User: What shape does this take?
Amino acid sequence: MFVIVGYPRSGKKRVLQELFARKHFFPLKEPITSSVLNGDFVVINMTNRRKRTSVMCSFISRVMQYHAASSASGIIMLSLVLDNGLHDAGEMIRYLNASGYTMHYLVLRSSWSDKQLISDGDLQALKSLVSRGTVHVFEKLVTQSGVRFEQRQEELAEVINEVLGGCS
Assistant: This one.
């Protein structure tokens, strides 16, 4: 399972839309494909910023149970909110640690919409919360640069395909 991580409003949804060349995702329907990614995917395009973390965990569980017999990989988004509130990422990461899935956290260090970067402290906090999985950090500054955004998309696709190639 892949988790696209970034601060709220950092462009995670745009990343999914570009990777799959679509705007809408229906995780309780058939898995989808991408022209740049190998394999089938179940995409959940909501985050813990909009939904309480407990609701997100329940929904992820429901979707993955629905696709249990499928060989599709899951892709979800995680807003890096570390405030111990209802939208805190820590609860979701602990849920994912216990899920039994092999997790790959794809951290978008640079925001698309503004010049905000994930702080070193928040990145370290994320890494310390992850006990089951690998954290891949994408450092490329992409703020409002279509060219750099596209380059980061290519890097993301390369990592996802490399991970999936190792699972065959």
User: Anything to note?
Assistant: Residues 146-166 form the longest helix (21 residues). The CA atoms of residues 19 and 34 lie 7 Å apart.
